[in-house]
Write a structure and sequence with these properties.
Blueprint (H helix, E strand, L loop, with lengths): L8 E5 L4 H12 L3 E6 L2 H13 L4 E5 L5 H15 L4 E4 L14 H29 L8 E6 L12 H21 L4 E8 L2 E2 L8 H10 L6 E2 H12 L9 E4 L6
Parallel strand pairs: 1-2, 1-4, 2-3, 4-5, 5-6, 6-9, 7-8
The structure holds NADPH dihydro-nicotinamide-adenine-dinucleotide phosphate.
Length: about 250
């Protein structure tokens, strides 16, 4: 049986597109007030307006998660303006693929700083608030949902540093889960397969072509499919923790 999220507050990073935007809508539909964090505030403002029209509550937080102070401020503003923090969806990420040999180092640095350090900064700032919310009504449980990838489970030629960042997210999540789960803060890992979003568009043209060829003919997941998984995880009753969810398109090998 699902618990609705009425009276709770969720912060979603990378809420300006793809999985993050869909997750914010899904959590709002379950009754959560949502804080929307990313760099593109025009997108966040549009999303907040959609949420308001549907009867929900949303705030816009211009945030670059690679800046520790901005990540912390996103968490603090969520608590100041919405009153508490029950759910953190650590979703912001980039996937810059291609051979490691002669890869631009700047791409590796971007992935480490967004996928790993950004997620850690948000987690660090959020944990005291999640621990506090876990003791409070209406749910007496709190959630951190970390978005990894199939790439966090299976390493592939051409994905070395993306694999490294997502494996790191998995390791961090499991160790943290063991540390805080006894205090009713659930740490969950979602590992999507190929999902139709803007993610691949940030790659160099030759890499985009390789990605397109790899998934030719595969009916991809939608951002809403993954948002549905996230909403499922955070609406479980307090005694049920979905630790990990690996979700591929049916045709993805
Ligand atoms: P999108 O490119 O659509 O979304 C990425 C989001 O991350 C955007 O909202 C972007 O917002 C945000 N972001 C990027 N850099 C920063 C930053 N420095 N600070 C704050 N926000 C940032 O891709 P997806 O929705 O697909 O990706 C979401 C997550 O899902 C990622 O972690 C990705 O690795 C993971 N994933 C995606 C898969 C897929 O096939 N699509 C498969 C497996 C995992 P803005 O640019 O406005 O800051």
């Amino acid at each position: 049986m699902a618990d609705r999220l009425d009276g709770t507050v969720a912060l979603v990073t990378g809420a300006s597109s793809g999985i993050g935007a869909a997750a914010a809508l899904a959590l709002s539909a379950e009754g959560a007030a949502v804080a929307l964090a990313a760099r593109r505030t025009d997108r966040l403002t549009d999303l907040a307006a959609r949420i308001a029209v549907a009867g929900g509550d949303a705030i816009v937080l211009e945030t670059d998660v690679t800046d520790e102070a901005q990540a912390r401020q996103a968490v603090e503003r969520t608590v100041d303006e919405l009153g508490r923090l029950d759910t953190l969806v650590n979703n912001a990420g980039v996937m810059l693929l291609g051979p490691a040999v002669d890869a631009p180092l700047s791409e590796w640095e971007r992935m480490v700083s967004i996928n790993l350090m950004g997620l850690l900064y948000c987690a660090h700032a959020a944990l005291p608030h999640l621990l506090e919310a876990a003791g409070k009504q209406p749910r007496r449980v709190a959630d951190m949902v970390n978005i990894s990838s199939v790439a966090g489970r299976v390493a592939r030629n051409g994905s070395a540093v993306y694999n490294a960042t997502k494996h790191a997210v998995g390791a961090f999540s499991e160790a943290l889960r063991q540390e805080v789960t006894g205090r009713f803060v659930r740490i969950s890992l979602v590992e999507p397969g190929a999902t139709a979003t803007e993610l691949a568009s940030h790659n160099r043209p030759e890499v985009r072509t390789t990605i397109q060829q790899r998934f030719e003919g595969v009916e991809r997941l939608s951002a809403e499919d993954i948002a549905d998984n996230i909403a499922y995880i955070v609406t479980r009753p307090r005694h049920v923790a979905v630790n990990e969810m690996l979700v591929r398109p049916t045709q993805q090998t």
